[in-house]
Design brief:
Length: 97
């Protein structure tokens, strides 16, 4: 999969250095993946939660942070929509962000 808006993750990692390893692992797994459906995402990330509108919520740094991505299966693209703390996550609508 090709990651769109990866700059959001890089900026986040600069401000939250303790997430760098988790984000690097997430990135490696996603870039090597060839997801064609929701189950394929869950096979790679069993703790992920599938959300409406082809979005998925991933746990980062042992679920201290959440990452929302929109997945375009046919185009093999994953678009980073959000990354933040649980408090930040509670303030957004994961289905529309």
């Amino acid at each position: 999969m090709k990651i769109l808006n990866y700059l959001k993750l890089e900026k986040f990692a600069v401000n939250h250095a303790h997430t760098r390893k988790s984000l690097a692992t997430w990135r490696r797994i996603v870039q090597e993946a060839k997801w064609s459906n929701k189950q394929a995402v869950l096979n790679s990330f069993p703790t992920a939660k599938m959300i409406a509108n082809n979005r998925a919520r991933f746990e980062i740094k042992h679920n201290h942070y959440r990452l929302i991505a929109e997945i375009h299966y046919q185009d093999e693209l994953i678009d980073i929509r959000f990354i933040g703390s649980h408090d930040d996550y509670d303030k957004i609508d994961a289905k529309t962000i």
